[in-house]
Structure formats: C-alpha cells, structure tokens
C-alpha cells in the first residue's frame, strides 16, 4: 500500500470485506488499496480503466462496503485531498479533475472555507500574551531579520516593508545575491530573527535558525506544526494552519499572523512610532506618490 493517510477507515473496510467480494470486485479493491490517492482524482471510468475492470464493478464494490455508489465512496478521498493529506501532485490532479467536471463552484466554496478554518485554527491556539511577548522582544532589539524563502520570501518582505514605514531596523533576508547565513554574520544577542517555513520544510531556513541560536539571537518561529524544527528551536513559536484545496500551502494565516504581530509591535512601541508613520505617509503625499482624492 502507498504511504498515505488517505481515508484509512475506508481502506480498513475494504480489507475487512475482502473475502466477501467477488473476484472482479477484489481487483477493484486491490487497486484502491494500492493506489488510494487515485480515487479522489479519478472518475469511475478512469479508475476502472486503470484497475482493468468495468465501471459497474467499482459501483458494486462501493455498495458492498456500505456506500450508495462510487461518488459517495470517493468523497472521503476527496476530503483528504482538500485537507492536504496527500502529495502536491495528487492535489494538482484533483484540481484538474474539478475543472474538467465543471464543479468550480465547489472549489470556490472549499477555498473560502479553508481560509476561514485556517484563521480560526491559527488564532485559536495563540494568545494575546504570546504576541505581546514576541512584540516586546522585537521592539527592544537592535535589528530584526525576517527570513522566508519560496512563497514565504514574499511574506517576509511584505512584513519588512510595512515595518519600515515607522522603523528602520528591519531587514528581509536573504538579501538579493546573498544567502541568509551570511546576512546574519554580525548578528548577536541584541538581534531578533523571525523565521518561517511550512512543510516541506526548507533546509536553508532550518540551518539559519540553528546558526542564529548559536549566535545568541532571539528566534520567532512560524510554521505549520508544533513539531516543526523552526518552532522547536524558537523562543517565541507560532503555529499556523496552512490547509488548502490547492497544492500550495496557504499563506492566509501566515500573512494575518505577521500583520497582527506588527500591530502588537506598534502597540508596545514608544509614542514616537505613530509620529514616524505619519511623517512617512506625509512625505509620500508631498512626493506625489499617492493619487490625491478630488476635494
């Protein structure tokens, strides 16, 4: 059987009913047991062809193990894909199957539902005190380095850009043409590293966090599991939910957490920060960067 978490209860039912299945139904069941991720992305005709049986065989097999038909049988496998319990390629195939069926309305609902659940799950596990503690470490530091690669590189740079409207000690790494470990060459216990990575974890982020700890830096870790090496190594660890029907981990919770963390930094900062943000935006108006609204 493939190494997968997909619908183990359904697979167990197939195994339990094995002796009661006809030889043809056993061929269908064998294919499911050996290729469970195919079920969620395949029509009954497609999977029957792959298993070298007739489509009706899959229908009968599904009914024999307690389902109304193949579509009902397939739903737990599709749900596992939506919850991110299979590999990226399998989720991509599932998205394509949705598109072919014309069921983009269901995908729309799944995307929105996943985003809402991610936010609820993320902030349900984080307290205001957790955020305040991290924010105070950030505000009281000499420099703050925000590390993200891949999709999280954009998240790190967005956080740094927003922070720079009122503060000067923020740096997004790796810098262009550099590597993260070099960017921290002169960092020490006076500095903070905010590091983020979700599964599959990026080795360069993990190694940079390890190095930062040896240099005495304070680590704020953001990842999708309390067992993530980034969270385990952090002084302030935050777990974000990143489930999504698509095959890229969702950034919704990461972005929202970073925005919330920055708001806490501003909240614990000295009064001058508000004036600095106001001056920054006043300068932009003076330079004509913003389109002025008609009076």
Automatic annotation (TrEMBL):
PROSITE patterns per the UniProt record, alphabetical: HTH_RPIR (PS51071), SIS (PS51464)
Residues covered by the SIS domain: 134-283
Pfam families hit by this protein: HTH_6, SIS
The entry's keywords: DNA-binding, Transcription, Transcription regulation
Matches recorded under Gene3D superfamilies: Glucose-6-phosphate isomerase like protein, domain 1, Winged helix-like DNA-binding domain superfamily/Winged helix DNA-binding domain
Bilayer-spanning residue ranges: none
Domain spans labelled HTH rpiR-type: 8-84
Keyword Lyase in annotation: no
PANTHER family: GLUCOKINASE, RPIR-FAMILY TRANSCRIPTIONAL REGULATOR
UniProt protein name: MurR/RpiR family transcriptional regulator
Source species of the chain: Roseovarius phycicola
């Amino acid at each position: 059987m493939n190494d997968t978490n997909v619908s183990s209860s359904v697979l167990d039912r197939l195994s339990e009913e094995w002796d009661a299945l006809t030889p043809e139904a056993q061929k269908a069941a064998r294919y499911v047991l050996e290729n469970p991720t195919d079920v969620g992305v395949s029509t009954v005709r497609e999977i029957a062809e792959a298993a070298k049986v007739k489509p009706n065989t899959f229908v009968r097999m599904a009914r024999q193990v307690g389902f109304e038909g193949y579509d009902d049988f397939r739903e737990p496998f599709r749900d596992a894909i939506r919850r991110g319990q299979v590999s990226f390629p399998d989720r991509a195939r599932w998205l394509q199957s949705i598109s072919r069926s014309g069921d983009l309305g269901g995908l729309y609902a799944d995307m929105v539902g996943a985003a809402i659940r991610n936010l609820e799950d993320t902030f349900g596990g984080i307290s205001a005190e957790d955020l305040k503690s991290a924010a105070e470490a950030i505000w009281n530091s000499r420099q703050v380095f925000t590390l993200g690669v891949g999709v999280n590189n954009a998240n790190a740079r967005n956080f740094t850009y927003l922070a720079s409207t009122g503060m000067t000690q923020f740096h997004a790494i790796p810098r262009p043409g550099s590597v993260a470990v070099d960017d921290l060459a002169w960092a020490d216990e006076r500095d903070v590293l905010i590091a983020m990575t979700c599964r599959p974890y990026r080795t360069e982020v993990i190694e940079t966090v390890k190095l930062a700890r040896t240099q005495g830096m304070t680590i704020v870790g953001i990842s999708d599991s309390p067992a993530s090496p980034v969270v385990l190594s952090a002084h302030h660890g935050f777990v974000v939910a990143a489930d999504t029907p698509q095959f890229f981990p969702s950034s919704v919770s990461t972005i929202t957490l970073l925005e919330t963390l920055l708001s806490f930094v501003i909240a614990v900062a000295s009064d001058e920060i508000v004036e600095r943000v106001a001056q920054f935006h006043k300068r932009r108006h003076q330079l004509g960067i913003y389109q002025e609204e008609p009076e």
